[in-house]
Amino acid sequence: MIVFFAGLLLYGIILNLREVTLAEAMHDRGMAAIKDAKLIVDRKNYRIELYSEKVLVKSYKAVFGKNPSSIKTSEDDNVTPMGEYEICTIDTASKYHKFLKLNYPNARDAAEALKRGYISKNEFDMIMLSHSKEYCPPKGTRLGSEIGVHGIGKYNFIFKNLPFSFNWTNGSIAVSNESIDELYSVVKIGTPVKITY
After folding, report:
1. Does the predicted TM-score (pTM) go above 0.85?
2. Are the C-beta atoms of residues 125 and 59 closer than 8 Å to each other?
3. 55-61 and 47-52 as β-strands: parallel, antiparallel, unpaired?
4. Do β-strands 99-102 and 148-150 pair in parallel, antiparallel, or remain unpaired?
5. For 63, which DSSP code?
6. Could you tell me which CATH number the domain at 2-104+147-196 has?
7. Which of 88, 149, 166, 196 is the most exposed place for a label (fewest CB within 10 A)?
8. Which residues of the chain have pLDDT under 50?
9. CA distances from 188 to 4, 87, 133 (A)
10. CA 30, CA 123: separation in Å to the nearest integer?
């Protein structure tokens, strides 16, 4: 079993050797800087694409929530939501290395959840108030709020070198620590993040 696992990791390491850095990707496209960064999260293909204006700069391997459903209904369902979001805060002291928190649930999520009976009118009002003030969504609603793009943390070497996709998060999007460092260097609060399936 140990030999099999070691072989898997070695294969993953070899695959990762082919990945170019963000600096190399920018150089290849003749870019000195990323302008109007945007992230497109492709759940179907396990990728995050980084765009500068409308130009694809680099694609990153990503994994998602443990539950593959496309509809997020509660804080603890382990589903990665779909929709259009923005980075609302950045945490560099996260246990997952760095955390780019999204403004999930957004107004559309809240309206849909209220309509379906997943949240109360009071919870809906709390979410809408935070959006009107451009705050991150409040904790304490049934939909939750701790969704974002983050690294792996202390198990980075193992998880980044798996040669297959293993969804393990609470609904967030996980990339390697090296990848989140690159994304952190070019995004800011307000950077748009579109999650598709």
Report:
1. yes
2. no
3. antiparallel
4. antiparallel
5. B
6. 2.40.440.10
7. 166
8. none
9. 41, 7, 18
10. 47
